[in-house]
Design goal:
The structure holds three protein chains of three kinds. Chain A is mainly alpha-helical. Helix content of chain A is about 70%, strand content about 0%. Chain A is built from twelve helices and no strands. Chain B has two domains: about 5-225, P-loop containing nucleotide triphosphate hydrolases (Rossmann fold), CATH 3.40.50; about 230-335, no CATH class. In chain B, the strands form two sheets. Chain B has an eight-stranded mixed beta sheet with strand order 6-7-8-3-9-10-12-11, sandwiched between helices. Chain B has a four-stranded antiparallel beta sheet with strand order 2-1-4-5. In chain B, α4 packs across α5 (about 125-140), α4 packs parallel to α7 (about 160-170) and α5 packs across α7 (about 160-170). The longest helix of chain B is centred in the middle third of the chain and has 18 residues, at about 190-205. In chain C, α5 runs antiparallel to α6 and α12 (about 270-280) packs antiparallel against α13 (about 280-310). Chain C has a domain at about 95-320: MetI-like fold (Orthogonal Bundle). In chain C, about 40% of the residues are buried. The two termini of chain C are about 15 Å apart. Classes of the chains: A mainly alpha, B alpha/beta, C mainly alpha. Chains A and C meet through α1, α6, α7, α10 and α11 of A and α1, α6, α7, α8 and α10 of C.
């Protein structure tokens, strides 16, 4: 809850770049210098900033490719991530990292590296599906609230408040207690819990676009509400959703890990980074290396999504501010 | 009258990714005690940077003083230690900024903000600073001043805030008051009141004023001398009469033509200056104004004009400023 | 000001009722899997008479809305009902557990404020320095790592390995008996980690934002020292959004911290509610969430009030800030 709550809030950092520029240019030079600046300085800055975003993209692609192709290379190279050979367990269990088992083996003699790769499948699946659910519900709710306003706006935004008033992880645990712990239920729960933020972002961007004159003009020309929404408002509100969605995937991966860690997510023997950490916890004293890898996998993957989100935010020039 | 402030060949540059930005490039003027100087130009002409340079409020880096000097009572401001400059700021030289809406700190009471410099420079106690701050608000024409001193800036109207800014600036009876577009953000009706207030205070205390503006109308009403700036450089300096009734630089002509006039029976048409002010990173060769100057000739593109003395302290930086046939409205342009 | 507070309290009421109604719907028979009485009795076979007695004892024979009204009535008397499993009053359980959560939350908030604010301010003042880059990098990492993993890493390093190496080490579990500082250090750091990173980031960007404001230049033009400008004029303005964040965070922490409490076997209410959820002990869950939501709302109100204190534009209801 407290420890995970902020991941679903908007990154509050306001990138006040125009201000940096003003300093760099002294105080009085707003107008005349602009043409040269946009051409060159922005390109330089974007390239530099994007390096991190590109690194994030590369890492996500690597993880994705490894996860998708896992069936082809993991079992022959590293061994089966789930099945155990009971006759050999005692000889193979809790081995430290070696050439044969680069990340070592767990208490049941399974290759940790193989399990980490298969865990990536869960994380990416849950991350993408959960955020898709949030985005679909959030867009719908946000659009209704912003476009029709009045009572529907009040009800939806109060409902969002109720969602925010609930401690996040508790809410997720309660939903899973209802639905039963499974991967599907995890992404459903995370997805449902994510809608209020998306709805808020979408609602405020619609409201800001709605004030624009071209929307009035379209309405004056007799365009219908759905048409105004899809043709005039959606394209303008889409950038913040893309940025927020990308960052949310990282948040969803963290939430899945937390739920699985608490035993409310993906169930053993199927590997997920979260439940691997729960298992590794009991072996912390004898085999501390086991807990290193799933944690590193979560960290690097979430960081990659966050960096991608940052890069997209800068490139699309989205102001993330609540 | 004695010379209070002397600016000599001042160059204030900013180092940017794109190159060196010459915000102020060779500004020279002097200011006598009790005198009023108007600095006129478009935005980006270096007026404000000149003012901030005098206060040494240029952020460094990226800013730096590349040359020239600023002397206050014959001491070089540029060579002063940080502590010496601070003891000057708000005390001997004070400044009023353009936007009174944002220049007051929203979280402190107006009276406290006025009293701050009194406590700092005059060593006043909290209490006597409060009392004096209320008096100052009264002086600048805030009704019910001792009550209003306890208000926060957002409770003041724009005009009142600028009055408060003036109260803050004159709190320590400075020798020099620099006003950077003090009325630009205000309603026209308020503008005149604010200017009258400044003149009134000046006459009472014999304060010298540097009035920075893009509005020649303001200058005409209240200043003794005028400096017209373009692209970081002074292009014409002289008394109000000289610059207004006998301007020698085509840029000054342009400024005057774009000004609504009531005293001259024109065809009632305002003539804007064509084009945009230049980038201060890539200042045009020769005379910086030549791309926009309808009279430009080859020499204007090749050679930078020096300020030439036209007599009685009237100077202009134009190759033809002294030529007899070169008058406003003549189509003597070589390019034509 | 009073009007403002009153308005904020009024706004909370529907949220509070919304939360309790949702909780009650979740408790309705058929919504939750499993029969509460079976949960209560476990595998023991009981007679129908006993069953009906238990149903009556917990008020489960009443229609749902009657149960809700009864529950809310009792709630205002401070009675949160009986636990299905522990045969104790829920109020009693939370009265016992809450101080532990409070202890951990306050320690974490303290770390968050001291470290987060100072790191953020230094980063802003020394912008683009090596320090600033290092801070930006490490805050990105901190917000991307699972807190429970951070807790485990610290346990392994400062608990297990330091002990092995013969260095002074920290206890890795529990609160100590009697509770001591050594047991508090690692859980508090773990709980504070993510928020500290956020506070540092927000503080940095706020300070940079504020230092560009015209009134900062005004203060400099008065002849104030750079340090005094930062302290007197920049800080108070920059703090306004940070205070909001820290307050909301405190509210979240007072709701307990399941992950941190689980990793360090800390007997707080987050862990208690989590156990109750897995055991389907609904009175504890409902009671816990109600307490948590109330705490959360009170903190939010306090945040808004302190916000108004820092920002006179809100206090005097002038223009919208």
């Amino acid at each position: 809850m407290a420890d995970q709550d902020h991941r679903h809030k908007i990154d509050l950092e306001q990138v006040a770049e125009h201000v940096e520029e003003q300093v760099a240019y002294g105080l009085e030079v707003q107008g005349p210098v602009r043409p040269t600046r946009t051409l060159w300085r922005d390109t330089v800055r974007r390239l530099r900033k994007n390096k991190l975003a590109v690194a994030g993209l590369i890492w996500v692609s690597i993880v994705l490719v490894m996860a998708v192709t896992a069936d082809l290379w993991v079992p022959p190279l590293l061994g089966d991530p789930i099945a155990l050979d009971t006759t050999q367990v005692s000889a193979r269990r809790l081995q430290p990292p070696s050439w044969e088992h680069p990340f070592g083996t767990d208490n049941l003699g399974r290759d940790v590296a193989a399990r980490v790769v298969y865990g990536a499948r869960v994380s990416l699946r849950v991350g993408v599906l959960a955020v898709s659910i949030s985005v679909v519900i959030g867009l719908l709710m946000g659009a209704i609230a912003a476009f029709y306003g009045g009572l529907s706006d009040t009800i939806i935004m109060r409902l969002a408040d109720v969602f925010f008033a609930f401690p996040y992880i508790l809410f997720a645990i309660a939903m899973i207690a209802l639905l039963g712990p499974s991967e599907t239920n995890v992404f459903i729960a995370i997805g449902i819990l994510g809608w209020p933020s998306i709805a808020r972002v979408f609602r405020s961007s619609i409201l800001s676009v709605k004030e624009n004159e071209y929307v009035d003009a379209a309405r004056a020309l007799g365009a219908s509400d759905p048409r105004i929404l899809s043709r005039h408002i959606l394209p303008n509100a889409v950038a913040p959703i893309i940025v927020y969605g990308t960052m949310s995937i990282g948040g969803a991966i963290l939430s899945e890990a937390a739920l699985s860690f608490l035993g409310m997510g993906v169930q053993p023997p199927q590997p997920s980074w979260g439940n691997m950490l729960a298992e590794a916890r009991s072996m912390m004293v004898v085999a501390p290396w086991i807990m290193l890898w799933p944690g590193l996998a979560i960290l690097t993957t979430v960081l990659a999504f966050v960096l991608m989100g940052d890069g997209l935010r800068d490139a699309l020039d989205v102001k993330m501010k609540e | 009258m004695s010379t209070l402030l002397e600016v000599n060949g001042l160059q204030t540059y900013f180092d940017t990714i794109d190159g060196v930005l010459k915000a102020v490039d060779g500004v020279t003027f002097s200011l006598d005690r009790g005198a009023t100087l108007g600095i006129v130009g478009e935005s980006g002409s270096g007026k404000s940077v000149t003012a901030l340079s005098i206060m040494r409020l240029i952020p460094m880096p990226p800013g730096r003083f590349a040359g020239g000097d600023i002397r206050y009572e014959d001491r070089s401001i540029l060579e002063m230690s940080a502590a010496e400059v601070r003891s000057l700021r708000g005390n001997n030289i004070a400044m009023i900024f353009q936007d009174p809406m944002t220049s007051l700190n929203p979280v402190y009471r107006v009276g406290k903000q006025i009293g701050e410099s009194l406590r700092l420079h005059k060593g006043m106690s909290r209490k006597s600073a409060d009392v004096r701050a209320a008096e100052l608000l009264d002086v600048v024409g805030i009704p019910n001043a001792s009550q209003r001193a306890k208000d926060y800036p957002h409770q003041f109207s724009g005009g009142m805030r600028q009055r408060a800014m003036i109260a803050m600036a004159v709190a320590c009876d400075p020798d020099i008051l620099i006003a950077d577009e003090p009325t630009t953000a205000l309603d026209v009706t308020i503008q005149a009141q604010i200017l009258d207030l400044m003149i009134e205070l000046q006459q009472e205390k014999d304060t010298a004023i540097i009035m920075i503006t893009h509005d020649l109308g303001i200058v005409a009403d209240m200043v003794d001398n005028v400096m017209v700036m373009y692209a970081g450089r002074p292009v014409e300096e002289g008394t109000v009469d000289q610059v207004f009734y006998d301007p020698k630089h085509p840029y000054t002509w342009g400024l005057l033509d774009s000004l609504p006039r009531y005293d001259v029976d024109d065809k009632g048409r305002l003539i804007p200056i064509e084009g945009q002010p230049p980038s201060l990173i890539a200042v045009p060769s020769g005379c910086a104004f030549h791309p926009r100057c309808p009279y430009a000739r080859d020499v204007c593109r090749a050679e930078e004009p020096k300020l030439s003395n036209l007599g009685d302290g009237h100077v202009a930086a134009c190759h033809f400023a002294g030529s007899s046939g070169f008058v406003r409205g003549s189509t003597a342009g070589g390019a034509a | 000001m009073l009007k403002y507070v009153a308005r904020r309290i009024l706004q909370m009421i529907p949220v509070f009722f919304g939360v309790t109604v949702i909780l009650f719907i979740l408790r309705a028979p058929g919504v939750l899997p499993g029969d509460p009485i079976e949960m209560l009795t476990g595998d023991r076979v009981i007679s129908e008479v006993t069953y009906n007695q238990l149903v009556q004892k917990h008020g489960l024979d009443q229609p749902l809305y009657v149960q809700y009204v009864t529950y809310m009535k009792n709630l205002f008397k401070g009675d949160l009902g009986l636990s299905y499993k522990k045969n104790r009053s829920v109020t009693e359980i939370f009265v016992e557990k809450y101080p532990y959560t409070l202890r951990l939350a306050l320690a974490a908030i303290l770390i968050e404020m001291i470290v987060g604010l100072s790191v953020g301010i230094i980063s802003a003042v020394k912008r683009y320095s090596f320090w600033d880059v290092a801070v930006t990098l490490s805050t990105s990492i901190l917000v991307s790592l699972p807190v429970f993993w951070l807790g485990m890493l610290m346990q392994v390093l400062f608990g297990i390995y330091f002990k092995r190496w013969g260095l002074p080490y920290l206890p890795i579990s529990g609160m100590g008996n009697p509770p001591d500082l050594a047991h508090l250090i690692m859980p508090a750091i773990t709980l504070a980690s993510v928020s500290t990173a956020y506070v540092a980031r927000i503080m940095r960007s706020q300070m940079i934002d504020v230092s560009q404001q015209d009134y900062i230049r005004t203060a400099e033009a008065k002849g104030l020292k750079g340090g005094a400008v930062v302290r007197k004029h920049a800080l108070k303005n920059a703090l306004i959004p940070v205070v909001t964040f820290i307050g909301i965070d405190l509210g979240a922490m007072l709701a307990g911290a399941i992950l941190t409490e689980t990793v360090f076997n800390w007997p707080g209410i987050g862990y208690e509610i989590y156990l109750a959820i897995t055991a389907r002990d609904w009175p504890i869950v409902t009671g816990g969430v109600v307490i948590v939501v109330i705490a959360y709302m009170i903190i939010n109100l306090l945040v808004d009030v302190s916000y108004a204190f820092l920002d006179p534009r809100i206090r005097y209801g002038g223009e919208a800030a």
